[in-house]
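Two records follow; treat each independently.
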Amino acid sequence: MLLARALRAAAALRPPPRHPPRRLLSSSSPRALLPPPGAVPPLARSLWQLGGGGGWRTALLRPRRGSAGGVSCGCGGLHTEGDKAFAQFLTDEIKEEKKIQKHKSLPKVSGGWELEVHGTEARLVRKIAGEKITVTFNINNSIPPSAEDETQEEQKPDEQEPDLTSTPNFVVEVIKDDTKQTLVLDCHYPEDEVGHEGEEESDIFTIREVSFQPTGESDWKDTNYTLNTDSLDWALYDHLMDFLADRGVDNTFADELIELSTALEHQEYIKFLEDLKSFVKCQ
């Protein structure tokens, strides 16, 4: 014990070096990967941009004296001043997101569709005349990034930022009674077809791939033939689109699916912020 005290006293009396060694920031350092201020698009819902730019984040990441070992509750976890500021920011952000939330409950899709939601995945089911039609989509990564870039260039300083719109890919499955095969159509929203009102009516979604899969099996087989519509005859493609429209999957349905997906995405985003706040506060 006395030897340890002597060593600490000697270290305290040692003069500091004139040129302290500098640690070079490598490209793999997390701080080196932080984007420069102003590099984030205005619609990007990242904590970097929502916090008012790089200054807030730099201040949040800056170490504070005495914060390294501070514990404010009985959980035994680390609680810093940065965590406190982070939690307060999330509290304010959650309030703002709830203010602009259009749908407190998920909107319904007309046409007798029943909705099933499992986290970020949703399924619409409809039964007609011996057939079962299901439409499945996932809201993860469903907001087109190109819309953010265009808005940044076209938006005027006094204009209000447009609402974010979720346009997910969706899969249509058509199952006929007493059959062992399911017709599967993989559909998506082309970016140049969404949000153009007043123009000549056209399909706002397209069929990308068509295949048959075994009915009742959750895992589809890659060995089954898949038809890509890029090189498909237009007459056959038009018949496929009419086939879907006859079963309720048309432009009206596609518009309502966008509204449903956007509401679900916003709902899950708010829930994520609430979970993040609880995690930071260790609740």
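The next record belongs to a different protein.
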Amino acid sequence: MYFFISSLAILDLVGVSSVLPKMLENLILGRNTISFEGCVAQLYTFTFSVSTELILLTVMSYDRYLAIRQPLHYVTMMSKRTCISLMAGVWAISTINSLINTLLVAQLDFCGPNLVQNFLCEIPSVLALSCSSTYVNEITVYMADITLGMGNFLLVILSYCLIITTILTIQGSAGKWKAFSTCSSHLAIVGLFYSTIIYTYIQPTSTPLEKKNKTVSIMYTLVIPTLNPLIYSLRNKVVKVAFWKIVPFPKAN
């Protein structure tokens, strides 16, 4: 479990680092520009972080299922070697997906004005600027949406259906609550992440960008990566004890 949480933390750091530095630079200098090379690099890194998190959340839901369904065999089934192999597969799939989409975008023609209707370079915003055919790009994006987006979403739903079925077989309300509490943090993150991703990428590229809520982009690029460690950390008793030691509040008499 902690292996995947640490991987998620690193992934959030990569995603935020691809967007925040350039955003702060533009805010400080009072400009809204980015080079083509910088835009492509940002698009690749951001696409990689999003696709990786989609698959990683699915792996984490399977991990929670095994922890609840097979608690005595969990350590054996999810050994260090197994966890590393799963993460290697996650990183490999995400690298291939982001590389294909980025190379296809880099081959497009941009006649100008090249005004990105967002605060970062992501596929829907960049495709809207191209003056050449984006048919292949759109097909590739839809395929990625179906396989990585909807596919992983259905796998997460399946995992939680199995988790709920397993919890219902546990005797006693205390045991059921303890089992559910082990996956409540992951469930909260899944809800936040998928709701914003589906809202953004389920819309066709022909939809006017002005109609797309840029606040949603801020949610899954900056807010959710910030909330992830807080959601997981505040569920940990050791972290909560350390937090109250650092931020002591006067006790009521």
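Discussion point: The chain is about 75% helix and 0% strand. How would you locate this feature using only the token line?
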